């Protein structure tokens, strides 16, 4: 597979290493605004860049007919625009807030737990995510997906950052050290608490999942998620 990497930071460099090891070819490493990347050489593009650059990179790829895997978080205010563009161009787009197999199983577990808790009155849900100090966005994309999974399967109308006023499922964001990513969903009652936790030990699961998604996406048309890739629908 000939891969164009948009974003050559922590994730981009790891993707380069793992892709090369498995016999793929990296045909471009784009690490800043670039209006003329070698799109004609790419079978697929993978974007792990910045919240403010993700949409432009995706748009460039879709307009050139290059399938694009998007891992950048914090740009979803433009997701519907990207979906529309994917439809207009007949292209292929796959966004995931988290590509690791473990987190995608955790998403399914979280939804199932939220459904079970509908028969258990007296519990309130709370979400906590911890990441490294370099992370630009909060709450994490993964925490937002988890919160949406609860909202869709419970009476909670919406989520909110813990410090924001008003009602809604609170998400606490902690930034410390070099933590790769830890997510905890807690259901508390006056007498007990149920916690489910996912802890990433490093970034390898994210990168391997993104490479798997990229090979799955080549030759397809439409908008997809990891639920499609992993058959978790
Ligand atoms: N979905 C998932 O599974 C995962 C998602 N992520 C998300 O991926 C994103 C990247 O994470 P990470 O690699 O840790 O971040 P880094 O900050 O290490 O890397 C981002 C890179 O993008 C570069 N960049 C800046 N502008 C552009 C541009 N216009 N086009 C392409 N690249 C650009 C930055 O350069 P410079 O520093 O010079 O600005 C930087 O090198 C984040 O949004 C993060 O939340 C991370 C891990 C897993
Ligand atoms: O920025 C990160 O590092 C991560 N970002 C993603 C997110 O926002 O959920 C995925 C993972 O948790 C690592």
TrEMBL record:
Subcellular location: Cytoplasm
Domain of life, source organism: Bacteria
Chief localization: cytoplasm
Protein keywords: Amino-acid biosynthesis, Cytoplasm, Diaminopimelate biosynthesis, Lysine biosynthesis, NAD, NADP, Oxidoreductase
Binding site for NAD(+): 71-73, 96-99
Binding site for NADP(+): 29
Dihydrodipicolinate reductase C-terminal domain sequence ranges: 102-230
Molecular function GO labels: 4-hydroxy-tetrahydrodipicolinate reductase; NAD binding; NADP binding; oxidoreductase activity, acting on CH or CH2 groups, NAD or NADP as acceptor
Family: Belongs to the DapB family.
Function of the molecule: Catalyzes the conversion of 4-hydroxy-tetrahydrodipicolinate (HTPA) to tetrahydrodipicolinate.
Quaternary data: Homotetramer.
HAMAP family listed in its UniProt record: DapB
NCBIfam families for this protein: dapB
Protein name, UniProt field: 4-hydroxy-tetrahydrodipicolinate reductase
Protein's organism: Robiginitalea myxolifaciens
Organism placement in taxonomy: Bacteria, Pseudomonadati, Bacteroidota, Flavobacteriia, Flavobacteriales
């Amino acid at each position: 597979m000939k891969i164009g990497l948009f974003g050559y930071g922590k994730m981009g460099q790891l993707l380069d290493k793992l892709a090369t090891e498995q016999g793929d070819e990296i045909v471009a490493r784009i690490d800043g605004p670039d209006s003329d990347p070698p799109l004609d050489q790419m079978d697929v593009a993978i974007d792990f860049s910045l919240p403010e650059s993700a949409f432009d990179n995706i748009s460039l790829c879709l307009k050139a007919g290059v399938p694009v895997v998007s891992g950048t978080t914090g740009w979803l205010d433009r997701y519907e625009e990207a979906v529309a563009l994917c439809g207009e161009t007949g292209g292929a787009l796959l966004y995931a807030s988290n590509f690791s197999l473990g987190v995608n199983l955790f998403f399914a577990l979280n939804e199932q737990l939220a459904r079970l808790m509908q028969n258990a009155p007296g519990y309130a849900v709370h979400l906590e995510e911890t990441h490294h100090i370099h992370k630009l966005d909060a709450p994490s994309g993964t925490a937002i997906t988890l919160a949406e999974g609860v909202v869709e399967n419970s009476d909670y109308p919406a989520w909110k950052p813990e410090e924001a006023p008003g009602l809604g499922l609170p998400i606490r964001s902690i930034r410390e050290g070099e933590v790769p990513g830890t997510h905890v969903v807690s259901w508390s009652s006056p007498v007990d608490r149920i916690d489910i936790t996912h802890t990433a030990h490093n970034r390898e699961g994210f990168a391997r999942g993104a490479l798997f998604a990229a090979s799955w996406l080549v030759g397809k048309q439409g908008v997809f998620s990891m639920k499609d890739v992993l058959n978790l629908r």
